[in-house]
């Protein structure tokens, strides 16, 4: 956690990107192993940025069913989170067979609202059948 691109905000699950083109970790590698199970990444401030690149690292172990990612935005400080369901983000699902081998992928995300986060949802997972997920973010524009 380098100070010049990311700050932890007083123990909260929030990240502030200070410079564009730096990649900040939003979610360290996390195991999703309950059915269903989900986790939200750290929140990030939109500030003046217009888009982001979302870096996903994913791998399945055993035979869980599906892994889904949803970009979410808020304009009211986190009281209401809105799912961004446009383009690839409208149905970003991965099946266990494609994730049997570790995958590292990058997706473009237009930014809106004042804060954002990425939600990961696993279905069909348990102690023997799970997904490992990590999320990083690069602000642009």
Walk me through the structure.
The chain is an all-beta fold. It has one domain: Jelly Rolls, CATH 2.60.120.380. It contains no helices and 12 strands. Strands 1, 2, 4, 5, 7, 8, 9 and 11 form an 8-stranded mixed beta sheet that branches.
Salient structural properties:
141 residues, mainly beta, eight-stranded mixed sheet, 55% strand
Strand count, sense and barrel status of the largest sheet are: 8 strands, mixed
**Per CATH, what is the topology?**
Jelly Rolls
Which percent bin holds the helix content?
Answer: under 10%
- Judging from the principal axes of the Cα atoms, what is the shape? globular
Structural class of the helices, strands and pairings? mainly beta
Individual helix count: 0
Question: Layout of helices and strands, plus pairs?
Answer:
Blueprint: E1 6-8, E2 14-17, E3 23-32, E4 37-40, E5 43-45, E6 51-61, E7 66-74, E8 82-84, E9 93-95, E10 103-110, E11 115-123, E12 130-140
Parallel strand pairs: 2-5
Antiparallel strand pairs: 1-2, 3-12, 4-11, 5-11, 6-10, 6-12, 7-8, 7-9, 7-11
Briefly summarize what is shown.
The protein is mostly beta strands.
């Amino acid at each position: 956690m380098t100070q010049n691109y990311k700050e932890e905000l007083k123990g909260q699950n929030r990240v502030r990107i200070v410079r564009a083109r730096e990649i900040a970790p939003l979610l360290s590698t996390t195991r999703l192993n309950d059915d269903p199970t989900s986790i939200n990444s750290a929140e990030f401030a939109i500030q003046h940025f217009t888009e982001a690149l979302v870096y996903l690292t994913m791998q399945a172990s055993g035979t869980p069913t599906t892994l889904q990612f949803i970009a979410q935005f808020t304009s009211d400080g986190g009281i209401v989170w809105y799912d961004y369901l446009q383009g690839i983000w409208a149905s970003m699902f991965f099946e266990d067979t494609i994730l049997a081998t570790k995958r590292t992928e990058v997706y473009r995300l237009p930014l809106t609202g004042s804060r954002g986060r990425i939600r990961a949802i696993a279905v069909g997972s348990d102690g023997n059948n799970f997904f490992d997920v990590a999320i990083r973010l690069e602000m642009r524009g």
